Description:
By secondary structure, chain A is an alpha/beta fold. Chain A has 16 helices and ten strands. Chain A is globular, with a radius of gyration of 28 Å. Residues 424-437 of chain A have low confidence and may be disordered.
Amino acid sequence: MNDIVQKKLNILADAAKYDVSCASSGNNRANTQGGIGNAVNCGICHSFTEDGRCISLLKVLMTNNCIYDCAYCINRRTNDRPRATLTVEELVDLTIGFYRRNYIEGLFLSSGVIKSPDYTMERMMLVAKKLRIEERYNGYIHMKAIPGASSDLIHQAGIWVDRLSVNIEIPSNPELKRLAPEKNYVDIYRPMNFIKENIIAQKEERKHLRHAPTFAPAGQSTQLIVGATPESDRQILSLASDLYQGQRLKRVYYSGYLPVNEYDQRLPAIKTPPLVRENRLYQSDWLMRFYKFKANEIVSDEHPFLDLEIDPKLAWALRNLHQFPINVNKAPYEMILRVPGIGVQSAQRIIEARKFRTLNTQHLTKIGVVMKRAKYFIVNNELPASVFDLPSETLRKQIILGDKPKPKSQPDTQLKLFSFGDNVKPLRLTTNLAMLD
Amino acid sequence: MLLVYDGTFEGYLSVVFEVYKRKLEPTEITAKEHFQHTMFTSKEEITTDFDHAERVWKGLQQKLKPELNQIPYSAWLSGEKGIEMALLEYIRQAFILPLSVEGNFGDANILTVRKAARRVMREAMRVLQFVRFQCTLDGIYFSAISPEYDVLPLTIKQLQNRFADQNWVVYDLKRDYGFYYNKKTSEEITLADKTFSRSTGAMPANLLQEEEGFYQQAWIGYCKSTTIRERLNPKLQRQHMPKRFWKYLTEKKR
């Protein structure tokens, strides 16, 4: 272990940082006798970078050499960048060394494609195998399946890792072909389907044979780049929805496009990544996964893009005011979840708490409901009913106004002891003293 | 009536036992170290009885949801003012209510207990997140941290499962005690001779293994390289990783 490894690590971590996936969740893997590490279902973040993203896994490329020339990728072969490759041993040592110091929750291994997809995939698979067998490592491993690699190698990798994933990157096939002529959707979907089928088959087998090996037990995920191509939010979200339902993906990540290859005319010229849009997409994703929303409720043909000013749940509520107000003491869970200002936790708490008593506003506030939002959409026995007659547009303005932070310099109404207004003449202490004489 | 106990959880459970046995109506329950003399309330000190404590705990466990049965202990660990009385109400309701007490969020006492427990569990999680081991010359992985609440006992099982094949120490600098794990079991220890920094828990380089420096540098370098400069958001970083932990973090050392 030396300076060269350190330099290689820096290059390859820098090259891997644009992959936003970080989760170490979705699987409970127990440690084995005399082994090191385990994985917990909830996942653990061990650090946070200055951009506020979590570091859970050692996210690194095996190599940033690549035979492809994709317009959106910093590692494309025509870019003049420092290139490096970590050996299988170096990757294993770094993972174990970091893990033992509690720096990380596991390894996230991706790679540029060298020589051929099979050659690359095999070396990546060897890293996982060596960790599991020689080091008796039971921590988390997330591996990228290289599009075009043989199913046999992907199958082998799946046995050793917790999560396998293939990145779609560009949310539509024509755009992908334009930006990455060497790639196409068929190559991406083939391994994705293969992984899906293996996960299902292996789960079935483990019902009968308890000790049958697992296959990517934490499922698969993917990433979509947002803002590099002209797809609408509607296209992106319906793709994501298909992926969750059809491909049974655990997560879809959205990555606001960063202009990494500014010279390429095929890409839009933007200065800053579309962070708000990315955030709204994640909120919509949450609505689909945890709030039982359907993609076509969040965006539709009339509203193909998300409202950047307000969150998608509020936007839905404002478009569907006829469904409100709802009674928190009676409405079903699914409907309470849809109230702006009530999250999953508050909704669950309401369901539990109302078995004991009728809930009033004070209860709701204490439970964690954001009343300044929710008050427009709920009734209990005490709220005035007049606020519900507001038209959607007025309500929208009112809520946006209410969200703005109050100006800091509020006029002080309390009189201060030692400050004087403009027209009050300060008493002269000396004159007072003189008068005492 | 004011009841005083010795400041241990067993002591507290003994108080609960007495309250039930003698049908007491305490107005306050407090640990000895926080006790302040008052003029008008009568005060009684309850001696800790492990049998009584166990009976209360076992009885209580039968009334609680299995996945939420550590809430009373976690809430008590918060050491918040008045938590003892809120917890007594929680226990009372657990024994008499036909519904599971955990869901009674409309009751101020129950909510207080659940919120306190949540804060404590979050702090335990933070220890698991932010503890950093340094490998010493004698092959012991050492780490020190000072959590807001006394949560090390809640983290030991997880650390044992995870770092099963290495010797390690986690040390609470604030409360001056820790746990040592010898690849089989872990025991509570207090280090009289502190060879490490009392404020940051850092060991001097001459007591660390040679490769330790490499891994620390590699980690610091990794954290820098993986940052996306175009997206800096220090506020978000602090929100997830409170500044009070930074002095223990290898990657935040200067």
